[in-house]
Amino acid sequence: MNKQQIYDYLNQENVWYEITEHEAVYNMAELSNIEIPYPEYDAKNLFVRDDRWDDKYFW
């Protein structure tokens, strides 16, 4: 799925979401240099896949 397909799916399922685009950060020290909404809440993403890339999961 590309970005637009993900947004379309979330809308179709009536899932509320907010999009904030920012440069990639690799640790919490780098995050402190970026202005993001809700700075009091930390969020991390986890992307998991199998060896053949057949199954992919995003948390």
Task: Spell out the blueprint of helices and strands.
Elements: H1 3-12, H2 28-31, E1 47-49, E2 56-58
Antiparallel strand pairs: 1-2
GO molecular function: aminoacyl-tRNA deacylase activity; DNA binding
Keywords: DNA-binding
Organism: Hungatella hathewayi
Structural write-up:
This is DNA-binding protein. InterPro entries: YbaK/aa-tRNA-synt-asso_dom_sf. Keywords: DNA-binding. With 59 residues, the protein is of the alpha+beta class. The protein has one domain (3-58). The protein has two helices and two strands; from the N terminus they run H-H-E-E. The chain has helices spanning 3-12, 28-31; strands at residues 47-49, 56-58. Strands 1-2 form a two-stranded antiparallel ribbon. The protein is flat. The mean pLDDT is 82.
Order of secondary-structure elements: HHEE
Main sheet?
2 strands, antiparallel
- The tally of structural domains comes to 1
**Shape verdict:** flat
Radius of gyration: 14 Å
> Largest beta sheet: what is the strand line-up?
1-2
Compute the separation of the termini in Å: 15 Å
Q: Structural class of the secondary structure composition?
A: alpha+beta
Uncertain stretches: none
| E-strand count | 2
Residue-averaged pLDDT: 82
Helix content: 10-25%
Please report which band the strand proportion falls in: under 5%, 5-15%, 15-25%, 25-35%, 35-45% or over 45%: 5-15%
